[in-house]
Amino acid sequence: MSHKHTEKFWTRKIGAGKASIVGRASGAVQSVRTLNADMLARDEAARRGTRRRALVPTAVGFALVGVMFSLVSSNVLAVNFTTGNNKFRVYSNYLDAQKAAGFLSPTTQQDGSNDGVMEFGIVTAKLSGLCAIASETIPVINLPYSLKITAGDPVPDTYSGAAVPTGVTTDSAGKLSGASLTGSIAANNLFLNSNMLSGYGNKISGLNLGQSAGTVHTSAGLAWDTSTGGTSPSSLNSQGNFGLYAEQLNIGGLTGDTYGLNLAGAITLPSLKITVEPGTKSQADCS
Amino acid sequence: MQGTRRRAVPMTMLGLVSIGVLHYLVSAGVMAVNFTTTDQKFQIYSNYMQGDYGALHMASNAGYSSASSVGVAEVGFKVAKLSGLCAIVHEDFAGLTSSLIITAGAPVAGSFNSKQLVTADGRGTPIQLAADGTLSGSSLSGAVEVQDFFLNTTSIGAYGNKISGLNLGENAPDAGSSVGIDYPAGGSTLPQQGAFGLSANRLNLGGLAGDTYGINLAGQVHLPLLKMTAVPGAADQTSCPGAAQ
């Protein structure tokens, strides 16, 4: 082979090689692009998958936060507490209660006594007058004294129990009306544990007696928080304990004994008076 | 000089530790001073009291004599913000009655109607409240603010405004501790196990009028526009607006 032929041969060879290299490089780039596109697609799919998978717990989380917010904002996470060892007495000219639930339960007294009480919860309560009297012997001076808390309309010396007390105005459905309504004490989510309530039941409606204790709070839309003690109605469900539920539980001339009273929601108490007086006071000392 | 610094280090450390302990004790309210009261109750008035975390129990007053050793309600507040304060003390000297009037903050109105929320102070300036019943605006910035505020009273009258988290019948020692109140130690005023207690997360009292044998300010207090005046005769709430700064 002459030098010229040799040169042409190598020129063709190199040119073909160049073309081959370029072709192979181009193919490789194409492969990389394809691979990259595949990876991006897989990555995108994977990311969308994560998002999709995250949607469920996120939605559940938001739902739980919503439920929690609802519970807190409606103040149904009432706090239970250890009570004193003595009952105190409450009086009201009229209790206008909407959605009430109750069940039998042991008390939560400080000394661990296990007296039976009715745990009551009321979603919306309007009270025409309130008088609460706690009497105890005070240490050191060893004399009986009474702490008296009054608010709203004056409570008279006695109630007959046979009629709505004079001066209390109600409408045809038995709800407070007129001056008794405007001067009433409104409380949301009122809880008390009482072993005695008496009065004149006025146009009580939707009353269930003997409803399973574990369901009465659900019927009323109430929740008992027992994180600091006390008995939850749902914990009694399996035992089939006695429960009470009423759509409306109006009581005229209410007299009751209770170990504790809890108002989880905000309350306005016009004409509030707190006094400490010597002796054991009674309803006749309310006004 | 380095020797001087080295010698100063233990003293400085001791001082800092002491300040820390002192701060802890004061902030925990355990350095509250319990004291023997006089035999005379005195009157207190406020246009509005925003009580954050309050508790109450019955106890015997540590009085000067048997005349004042009586049952009282020991009331404690973790934080109290008062729109105006007027305290009136009466004393008899040689058959003549004199009164000491102590005022601070906004002028207190000459009378209250406990059936309604007080809307203005003793000079007609509106009392500003937020939707949740707390003081706001100039009523808040000009308030008398007290931390760890205790009084022993036989009577409190007011318009309870948007009281929240109220427990009646709570075991008396728990009532205080559940809202972060440490009652002054020593004496007969501590809550007894099993006794009646009251606690509230917020205890707002509009048109507060009460009596007390003593006031104990365990924590810090700001008394803007403080004024003390001795006047002849038995002053009453009607004297409050004129006595204020």
Properties at a glance:
heterodimer, A: 287 residues, alpha+beta, nine-stranded antiparallel sheet, two-stranded parallel sheet, globular, B: 245 residues, eleven-stranded antiparallel sheet, 4 helices, 17% helix, 42% strand
Structure notes:
The complex is a heterodimer of chains A (about 290) and B (about 240). Chain A is an alpha+beta fold. Chain A contains three helices and eleven strands, in the order αβββββαββαββββ. In chain A, strands 2, 3, 4, 5, 6, 7, 9, 10 and 11 form a nine-stranded antiparallel beta sheet that branches. A two-stranded parallel sheet of chain A has the order 1-8. In chain A, strand 4 (about 130-140) and strand 5 (about 145-150) form a beta hairpin. Chain A starts with a helix and ends in a 9-residue tail after the last strand. In chain A, about 40% of the residues are buried. Residues about 15-25 and about 60-80 of chain A have low confidence and may be disordered. By secondary structure, chain B is an alpha+beta fold. Chain B has four helices and eleven strands; from the N terminus they run αββββαβββαββββα. In chain B, strands 1, 2, 3, 4, 5, 6, 7, 8, 9, 10 and 11 form an eleven-stranded antiparallel beta sheet that branches. In chain B, strand 3 and strand 4 (about 95-105) form a beta hairpin. The radius of gyration of chain B is 20 Å and the shape is globular. Residues about 5-35 of chain B have low confidence and may be disordered. Classes of the chains: A alpha+beta (about 290), B alpha+beta (about 240). Chains A and B meet through strand 4, strand 5, strand 10 and strand 11 of A and strand 1, strand 2, strand 6, strand 7 and strand 8 of B.
